[in-house]
């Protein structure tokens, strides 16, 4: 043991108290026990002669304070201690670690006031993550230019009680990853961010300024100088004016999150220059425009969120055969769309028609090779916010098999096209609060992966098709406030729905309603429209029963990536799917 130089036991399923004596092995240079969520322990007092270069205890149950003697680890280059139970004050002696290159202390419970100058004076420091603790971060400007020697590549300062846009970023021209979410940063993005000889945005791959109080217009330079940017998250601020109009040709953007601001005007056509775009969210703004069919030329677009804006008019027949070829999720709710449902688009949305129940991977901004190169960041999995009876809930990851349509709260009219039944990959379908008429198509019984169906608040007529009883995964069903008649089908999931699913249809009878049917009106057994998929497991990590779509409008309220919100690892349920009770959140990171 005394000759050991390296111990790497990450993700080995270890549990119990970690022996403190191992930290003191005289020749030990590398000690990594990260991602063993059953390991407990405390960091010991370190000795001056300790040779540790790499210390990793991330995602364990290590607790207590960081000892002041940690500053005696003169050889330490990488300290990974994120997502643990550490608390207390950060020792000033961390500023003595002159060889430090990586410091990740995010997602702990450190308190007090922390001077970031302590770390900016470490000339070899490249990666710094302090997000989501309980301290306030300050930057001392006096003689600051003489104390900043670090050239950071990645910086995470989420939920650090920042009030202003960090001025020390003026000297950081090598940043690839910048996250400042869930602070109280007010005012406009400073002009100097665009006027430097080398723009702050030039090297960035991820920029997350979400959940702040930033206002004014979004700087045009963000769209002009972002040749390397993959993720842009500016959601939940107070930005106003128009969306930047000069998106550069050949940019690499995969995610643009501009939702929940005060943006106006039209969607800029230059968004078609974002040829790699997978996720566009401009929901909850004041955008006034017609349906942007031209976005359908983006070959990789998977998620399109336009909800709660001022979009208007009919969705006309597309002029191209291939539009939105990879679209899985579309939310047009709470707008002013009129006319018939877009039958020709439904015919072209091939990605929603595919069923690949064996795929268990999640959508994310970084692929595995990129994550290996940027091992200190997380892969930025896509996430979604859904309203369940007025309560916003967040689904922290989205399987690549997930598909959803929300056209609720518009003025669509006419009948529901039978072709919707060909979109067999759909898990969620919401057409509520429109002016739809005619029967519910029996072809909806083909949607065997469907978990939530809301057709309420329309003018639908005739019987509820018995074929819908074949939807074995249907957790939420709502046809209330229509003009439906006849007996309610029985069997399978239909035996679990209560009165609220059928209210407001005076012609319906049978359980769960108190109105009995004549025997002559009893429903026949369902005819088979497709073979039920009994092998399809949980869509989510624990199903949609907890976060069903809710009644009425707002089926898909928005999507969250960018900032990439995650809960603490110690609460598995709240990590995977939690109610949004406040703007301050925890982030989970890789490493």
From TrEMBL:
Database matches in InterPro entries: Leu-rich_rpt (IPR001611), Leu-rich_rpt_typical-subtyp (IPR003591), LRR_dom_sf (IPR032675), RLP23-like (IPR046956)
| Keywords assigned by UniProt, alphabetized | Cell membrane, Glycoprotein, Leucine-rich repeat, Membrane, Receptor, Repeat, Signal, Transmembrane, Transmembrane helix
Keyword Transmembrane helix present in the record's keywords: the answer is yes
Tell me where it mainly resides: membrane
Q: Which chain regions cross the lipid bilayer?
A: 542-566
Q: How does it sit in the membrane?
A: Single-pass type I membrane protein
Would the keyword Transferase turn up in this protein's UniProt record? Answer: no
Q: Which residues form a coiled coil?
A: none
Matches recorded under SUPFAM superfamilies = L domain-like, RNI-like
Q: Which domain of life is it from?
A: Eukaryota
- Give the record's GO CC terms: plasma membrane
Entries under Pfam families matching the protein: LRR_1
Compartments where found: Cell membrane
Q: Which family does it belong to?
A: Belongs to the RLP family.
The identity of this protein, by name, is Uncharacterized protein
Q: Which organism is it from?
A: Rubroshorea leprosula
